[in-house]
Amino acid sequence: MPCDLCGRFLCSLCDIEMHGQHVCPPCLNSGRKKPQLTNVDGDRILYGGIALLIAVVPLFAFYFITFITGPLSIFVAIYGWRKPRSLVGTGNISFYIAILLGLIQTGAWAWLIITLAWRISDS
Amino acid sequence: MKSRPYKRLPGRGRRLLNNSTLWEAEDVLLLVESHWVSETYRRFHWSDIQAFVICKTQTGLIITLVLGVLTLLLSLPIFFTEGGVAITFGVIAGLFFVLGLVNFLRGPTCRCMLRTAVQTQELRSLDRLNKARKVIERVRPRIEAAQQVSS
User: Fold this and answer.
1) Interface ipTM above 0.85
2) Which of A68, A89, B63, B85 is in Cβ range 3.0-4.6 Å of B81 for a Cys bridge?
């Protein structure tokens, strides 16, 4: 019997049957990192939520650091895009909002820097 | 279109930094604790569920009474003042009245526990009596089906 995740052949002692899947102990152990093993997931990181927090929180108090957090929120959203998302399918919209806010902040800073550079060069 | 394996059950236990929801799937009842940037999951197989324990609490009644008293106290100055002051007190009193009314209409509060052979888990999302009863009635067929098969 091969492991359904890594293909390694299993003896009857090592074979763990779980919801119709046969997995080996190492795959079960690392199951939290594999999106195929959703039945043993105990927690998941919501990269969309992290990206959204990075994009939104500085707007309220630390707007001057948005030149860092804008691109950072885009990076986190893209980094987490292919990672396992919420098991119940919530929070997908936060990716889109984070990228949109990140683009607006980055664009605003780019516009500000270009305008300032233009005026300095004019004067 | 890809069908979702989990269906959301009524109720949401809200806290400042997290909230708790219940989801039903083919083989498990899933308790999801969301913390803005992460989610934790607890699975209860239908065949393992021994009981739902509902304890009615007085929290809802106390909140309604407190909001009612605040509404009364804040509406008193309306009769002795006029103009902007009266309007301000009226708006604040109205706000407390609406909050109290919403709390009253949501029904009595409760604590709901799910019991298995090895643990007792509080279900924060089922904090209202009518909601808890509704959810239990909805999952009852699944539990009965699973336990008839397994027994």
Assistant:
1) no
2) B85
Distance in angstroms (rounded) separating the CA atoms of residues B102 and A62: 36
**Residue whose C-alpha is closest to residue B7's, from A90, A84, A40:** A90
Q: Which two tokens stand for residue A31?
A: 């199951």
Among B116, B144, B139, B141, which residue's Cα sits nearest to residue B126?
B139
Q: How far apart are the CA of A91 and the nearest CA of chain B, in angstroms?
A: 9
> For the segment B27-85, what is each residue's pLDDT rounded down to a tens digit?
889 999 998 889 999 999 898 999 999 999 999 999 999 999 999 999 988 888 888 88
Q: Is-contact B54 B110, C-beta < 8 A?
A: yes
Q: Tokens standing for B140? A: 């009852």
Residue numbers in A near B40 (CB within 8 A): 42-43
List chain A residues with CB under 8 Å of B37.
45-46, 49-50, 53
**Secondary structure class of B121 (helix, strand, coil):** strand
On average, the pLDDT of chain A sits at 85
Residues 88-147, chain B, touching A (beta carbon < 8 A): none
Structure-model confidence comparison of residues B151 and B55, the more confident one: B55
Q: Which residues of A touch B38 (CB under 8 A)?
A: 43-46, 49
DSSP alpha helix (H) spans, chain B:
59-80, 84-105, 129-150
**Residue in A39, A43, A53 nearest the CB of B39:** A43
pLDDT score at B56: 95
Q: Is the pTM of this model over 0.80?
A: no
B41/A53 touch (CB, cutoff 8 Å), yes or no? no
Phi, psi of B81, deg, nearest 5? -125, 175
Q: Which of B76, B120, B77, B128 shows the shortest CA–CA distance to B102?
A: B128
The residues spanned by each domain of chain A are: 1-42, 47-122
